[in-house]
Write a structure and sequence with these properties.
By secondary structure, the chain is of the alpha/beta class. Helix content is about 55%, strand content about 10%.
Length: about 325
């Protein structure tokens, strides 16, 4: 289960509409967590209908990267995972399901009901656990199963950033990316999406969990120069924006930054535009080298990690 992302121009407005609806549904949760007027203003902005100028700018961003490949990659991951499970003697159908756009979790529940599945295992494609974000997928899945009267057991894997094969995927990729730039003084920046202050103040430990995983990788790889930076999309956040990390690396005398998108398992708008075009522009302005790693996508080690998780939960 992943978040979903527009694959063409026609889906951009529908995506924004579903996003606004999602904000409205969670309004009461947010209001319960609000501490001050600044957070209230952030919530109000999120629910406000975007202007034509804002929509045109968003469409332009998606067009500049050829639109998001998230669904295509998730489909490849599903095919590879089903094949790997078959090799392990597990007869299972694997279905990509999106929180927004298609195929929706509702649509996929209908498919698995029709297929006569006796057991459902969901895996949230954000390995570091967030109570606000990851629990939402479980809630939607269980709600849809109940609504469609699916009488079978369901397990949702919501945290898997400590899986050894998942960590090995990143260690191997980091070493490979680091090899050609070893002669340069490089700052390694582990990165993921940001989280609103209201949720952190409310006790969500996503940032803490992500930084724990980054620290473990840095320790096992014996990295001396590393930090964590976050894609905030220009919104106020209680964490350090990735572009600030790049600028600080330059001021500290580093010649290059290596961006490790540890919070993502597939390319999407944030990795291609936020960590791609926007960070490239920042690096160019201050004259620092930049190397952006790709998420694992449908790499063999990632598929092995997911297959192991599924088998363990059967």
């Amino acid at each position: 289960m992943s978040v979903g992302s527009p694959s063409n121009q026609d889906e951009v407005e529908k995506y924004v509409s579903e996003l606004r609806m999602e904000h409205k549904v969670t309004k009461q949760l947010v209001i319960g967590l609000l501490k001050d007027w600044r957070n209230a203003a952030t919530v109000a902005r999120a629910m406000r209908k975007p202007t034509k100028k804002q929509m045109d700018a968003l469409r332009s961003k998606y067009a500049s990267i050829g639109f998001s490949p998230l669904l295509e990659i998730t489909n490849r991951q599903a095919i590879a995972l089903q094949s790997k499970l078959s090799e392990k003697g597990v007869n299972a159908g694997v279905y990509p399901a999106m929180k927004r756009l298609h195929p929706s979790i509702r649509e996929v529940v209908a498919k698995i009901k029709e297929a006569g599945c006796a057991e459902v295992i969901g895996i949230v494609m954000f390995p570091s656990y967030s109570k606000v974000f990851n629990d939402k997928y479980e809630k939607i899945l269980l709600s849809e199963m109940k609504a469609q009267r699916m009488d079978c057991s369901a397990t949702v894997i919501k945290s898997w950033d400590d899986n050894v094969q998942f960590l090995d995927t990143w260690k191997e990729s980091i070493l490979k990316a680091y090899a050609p730039i070893r002669g340069e003084r490089t700052m390694v920046i582990f990165t993921t999406h940001s989280m609103p202050k209201v949720f952190i103040d409310g006790g969500d430990e996503y940032i803490k969990n992500f930084e724990r995983t980054a620290r473990r990788l840095a320790t096992e790889l014996m990295l001396q120069d590393w930090t964590c930076g976050y894609y905030t999309g220009g919104h106020p956040a209680p964490v350090k924006d990735i572009k600030i990390c790049i600028s600080e690396s330059k001021s500290k005398g580093f010649e290059r930054v290596l961006l490790v998108p540890l919070g993502y398992v597939a390319e999407n708008m944030e990795t291609l535009y936020g960590l791609g075009a926007e960070c490239d522009e920042t690096a160019k302005k201050i004259d620092i080298g930049i190397t952006r790693m790709h998420p694992p996508n449908d790499s063999e080690k990632l598929i092995n990690a997911m297959a192991e998780l599924i088998v363990r939960n059967l």
